[in-house]
Write a structure and sequence with these properties.
Blueprint (H helix, E strand, L loop, with lengths): L1 H6 L10 H4 L4 E8 L4 H11 L5 E4 L3 H13 L4 E4 L5 H12 L5 E4 L1 H4 L9 E4 L8 H6 L9 E8 L3 H9 L5 E3 L9 E4 L6 E4 L12 H6 L1 H5 L7
Parallel strand pairs: 1-6, 1-7, 2-4, 2-5, 3-4, 5-6
Antiparallel strand pairs: 8-9
């Protein structure tokens, strides 16, 4: 585009995205959730929808590795795929996924670029992409060759601005779906960081309560019996 603007006078610009064209075949949904329970929502989506083959997108290598480890701990058939892999490792994971030996692929945007695999029924955006246009590339990994596909995006309360940028770029409908049936949640203020969060139990005013991040950070102290929390 820089070259065009330098040498052409008032050029007409027509941008055609192959992934944007395919959007009519993709059912798009989003859920507004408490980020501290994102993993629970993900597992619920996988189980309730009986997903057979899906790509789950994370924004970082570390996040992809961690999510794949947590899913494997719950006996899901999954492997990560990101730019930290050698070409041999990448080919091995992709081929296994292509042959159906893997049910789930947890990938970063860079690793998934150019993937063209038939039979992917679902794209799950575990993390909102850093750039709005990347959303359309992500969901374009499903609904290949005229097939139908489903894209589900998990939107944390702090991610709505980014998600609205995505919605502003397309004329297709991204339908909101309500949260699945989880235990009743209670709004509290974290005793450590002061941020508002939700917990699946009625808090005791005489006890400290923590958000998910602070709870994980305090794991060594909990194990040593240094703090008293619900």
């Amino acid at each position: 585009m820089k070259v065009c603007n330098k040498y052409l006078k008032k050029p007409e610009k027509i941008l055609v995205s192959k992934d944007e064209i395919a959007l009519t075949q993709i059912a798009q949904y989003y859920m507004v959730i408490d980020s501290g329970r994102k993993f629970d929502y993900l597992c619920n989506i996988i189980d309730k929808n009986h997903i057979k083959r899906a790509i789950i997108f994370c924004k970082t290598r570390k996040g992809a590795n961690r999510l794949a480890d947590r899913l494997r701990a719950k006996r899901y058939n999954v492997e990560p795929l990101h730019g930290g892999f050698t070409q041999t490792q990448r080919d091995s994971v992709v081929n296994s996924f292509r042959k159906g030996n893997l049910k789930l692929l947890v990938a970063t945007d860079l690793a998934a670029r150019g993937l063209d695999i038939q039979g992917i029924t679902h794209i799950i955006n575990y993390d909102i992409p850093l750039e709005a246009l990347v959303y359309f590339h992500r969901i374009g990994r499903t609904a290949r060759m005229g097939s139908d596909g489903t894209a589900i995006t998990l939107v944390g309360y702090g991610d709505m601005d980014k998600f609205n940028q995505i919605r502003a770029l397309t004329k297709t409908v991204i339908e909101k779906i309500e949260n699945p049936n989880f235990p009743e949640m209670y709004k509290v203020v974290c005793s450590n960081c002061g941020e508002k969060c939700e917990v699946p139990f009625k808090p005791d005013p005489n006890r400290e309560v923590y958000c998910q991040d602070c709870w994980e950070k305090r794991r060594p102290q909990r194990l040593n019996g240094c703090i008293n929390v619900i």
